[in-house]
Design brief:
Shape: globular
Number of helices: 18
Order of helices and strands: HHHHHHHHHHHHHHHHHH
Number of domains: 1
Largest sheet: none
Structural class: mainly alpha
C-alpha cells in the first residue's frame, strides 16, 4: 500500500516537473493576460507550487514508511556535493535579497515590475526550481522525459514561428512577423526567441548524433535520423529570421566552444592552446576596441536624422550591422552601457535593487532617443547581463553570479572530458546551450521562460556531473 502511494506521488511529482518545461514557454498574448510576464509568472509559480506540493507529500509518505521504495543510490548526492551544487546559487540569492531589502523601491524589487515580473520573488522561485531538480532527479527515465519534453516544446515553438513567417498565423499581432520578417513565436519578442533557441538547440543536435551513432551501430535505416535533422535545420532557419544579432553571435560562439572542446578531448592540446591563446588575444583586442568606442562615440545631430529606422529591420541590414555600432540599435546600446558604468560607480557594492534600473536611467534621457527608438522612451534594462547584474546587485552580485557559473562549467567540463557517454554527452550539450545563451545575454536580458530553462539546464549539468551515473 505504501509503495503504491509512493509511486502515485512520484508519478504526479514528475508530471508537475515536466509541466514547468512544457507550459512556461507557451503564451499567446491576444487570448489571455497582458503583458506576457504576468502569464509567465502565473504558469511558472503555479507549476512549481504543484511540484513542491507533491514533493512534501513524498517526504511525508517516506517519513511514515520505514520500508519505503528502493531507489538507485548512485543518484543521491553526498553532503559535500550538495554544498557544491546548491551553495553558490544560494549566495547569489542572498545578495539579491540584501540589494532588494536596501533598495529605494523595495516593493518593486521584491515583486518585480508590471512589465517584466522579474523581481526577487521570481529569482527565489528559480532557486527553488533549481533545488527541486537537484534533489529529485534520480533516474535515467526522468532525464530522458525532461529532454523529450524540451525537444517537443522546441518543435512546437519553431513550427509556430514558421506559421508566423509564412503568414498563416491564427493571431493578429501589432507587429506582424510576415511583414517585419522577424519571428518571435510564443516568446513575445524576436531577441528572446533567439536566446531561447540558442539555449535549446544543442539538445536537438545531441539527439541527432545519438540516434545517428545508434543507427550505425545497429545497422538500421538512416531515415530514422530525418526528424532530428529536420528539426535542427528548422531551428537554424527560425534563428536566422529572429534577426537577433546577439543570438547569432551566441550561435557562432557555440560552434567555437565545440571546436575547442573537441581539440582538447582528442588530445590535440598544442593546437588547443594555440587557438585558446589567439581567442584570448582577440577577446582582449575587441574589449579594448569596445571601451574606446563606448567613451568616444559622438552625439548625433537629431535635426539631420529621420524618424524612420525601418531600414535597419531588413535581414540584409541586420547582418551587415553585426560589425557596426553606429546604427540605431547599436547607438542605443552604447548609451545604455555608458550610463550603466556611471551608475555602477555611484553605488558599486549592492547596486540599486532588482527592477530598479528604470528609476535611475531617467536622469540620462537624451533627445535623440526619440529618433533612435521612441519619444519619451527610456530603458529599464542595460541590455547586457554583466551591467544589469552590477546595477541590480553590485559587485557582490556579479562575483556571486560568476562564481555560480564557473562552478557549474567546471563540474560540467570535468564530467564531459572524463567520458562522453550518455550523460557525459548530455552535459556537453547543456553546457553548449548555456554558453551560447550567455553570449546572447551580452546584448539582451533574462525573461522568465528563458531563465527557467537556463536555471534548469544548470541544475541538470550539476546533477549529472556530481551524481555517480554513467548511463
Amino acid at each position: 500500500m505504501v509503495e503504491r502511494n509512493f509511486l502515485k506521488i512520484r508519478f504526479w511529482l514528475d508530471i508537475s516537473c515536466l509541466a514547468v518545461f512544457l507550459i512556461v514557454p507557451f503564451y499567446f498574448g491576444q487570448f489571455f493576460l497582458k503583458p506576457f510576464p504576468i502569464a509567465w509568472q502565473i504558469s511558472f509559480y503555479g507549476c512549481l507550487l504543484f511540484c513542491f506540493f507533491f514533493w512534501v507529500l513524498e517526504v511525508i509518505n517516506s517519513f511514515f514508511s520505514r520500508k519505503g521504495v528502493k531507489q538507485d543510490k548512485k543518484f543521491f548526492l553526498s553532503n559535500k556535493d550538495l554544498f557544491l551544487a546548491v551553495v553558490p546559487f544560494f549566495i547569489f540569492i542572498v545578495v539579491n535579497f540584501l540589494s532588494s531589502l536596501f533598495s529605494e523601491h523595495s516593493l518593486i524589487s521584491f515583486w518585480g515590475s508590471y512589465e517584466r515580473g522579474f523581481g526577487f520573488l521570481t529569482w527565489l522561485f528559480l532557486f527553488l526550481f533549481y533545488c527541486f531538480l537537484i534533489f529529485n532527479l534520480k533516474t535515467k527515465d526522468q532525464l530522458v522525459k525532461i529532454i523529450g519534453v524540451i525537444i517537443g516544446v522546441n518543435l512546437f515553438v519553431c513550427l509556430y514561428g514558421l506559421l508566423q513567417l509564412t503568414g498563416f498565423d491564427f493571431i493578429q499581432w501589432s507587429e506582424e512577423p510576415v511583414l517585419t520578417k522577424r519571428v518571435f513565436s510564443t516568446l513575445g519578442q524576436p531577441n528572446f526567441l533567439g536566446s531561447w533557441l540558442v539555449l535549446t538547440m544543442p539538445l536537438i543536435f545531441w539527439g541527432l548524433v545519438f540516434v545517428l551513432l545508434k543507427v550505425i551501430k545497429e545497422k538500421k535505416s538512416f531515415l530514422v535520423i530525418l526528424p532530428f535533422l529536420f528539426l535542427l535545420l528548422l531551428n537554424i532557419f527560425i534563428l536566422i529570421f529572429t534577426q537577433s544579432r546577439g543570438a547569432w553571435l551566441g550561435f557562432f560562439g557555440q560552434i567555437f566552444f565545440v571546436f575547442l572542446f573537441l581539440l582538447y578531448y582528442f588530445q590535440k592540446k598544442r593546437t588547443f592552446y594555440i587557438f585558446l591563446g589567439l581567442s584570448l588575444l582577440t577577446f582582449v583586442l575587441l574589449f579594448l576596441y569596445f571601451i574606446f568606442v563606448l567613451f568616444h562615440f559622438q552625439e548625433l545631430d537629431i535635426s539631420n536624422l529621420s524618424f524612420n529606422q525601418s531600414h535597419e529591420n531588413t535581414l540584409e541590414a541586420r547582418i551587415s550591422s553585426l560589425a557596426n555600432l553606429g546604427g540605431a540599435t547599436g547607438r542605443l546600446r552604447l548609451f545604455f552601457w555608458r550610463d550603466a558604468i556611471d551608475l555602477v560607480l555611484q553605488k558599486p557594492i549592492l547596486g540599486y535593487g532588482l527592477e530598479n534600473q528604470r528609476f535611475y536611467y531617467l536622469s540620462y534621457y537624451r533627445p535623440e532617443f526619440a529618433v533612435l527608438e521612441a519619444i519619451n522612451h527610456y530603458p529599464d534594462r542595460a541590455h547586457n547581463e554583466i551591467f544589469d547584474v552590477l546595477l541590480t546587485s553590485g559587485v557582490l552580485g556579479l562575483v556571486s553570479y560568476l562564481f555560480f557559473l564557473i562552478i557549474s562549467f567546471y563540474l560540467g567540463l570535468k564530467r564531459s572530458l572524463k567520458n562522453l557517454d550518455f550523460s557525459g554527452s548530455i552535459v556537453l550539450a547543456l553546457l553548449i546551450g548555456v554558453f551560447g545563451y550567455l553570449v546572447s545575454l551580452l546584448f539582451s536580458f533574462h525573461i522568465i521562460p528563458t531563465a527557467v530553462y537556463f536555471v534548469g539546464f544548470l541544475a541538470l549539468i550539476n546533477c549529472l556531473s556530481l551524481k555517480n551515473y554513467a548511463g
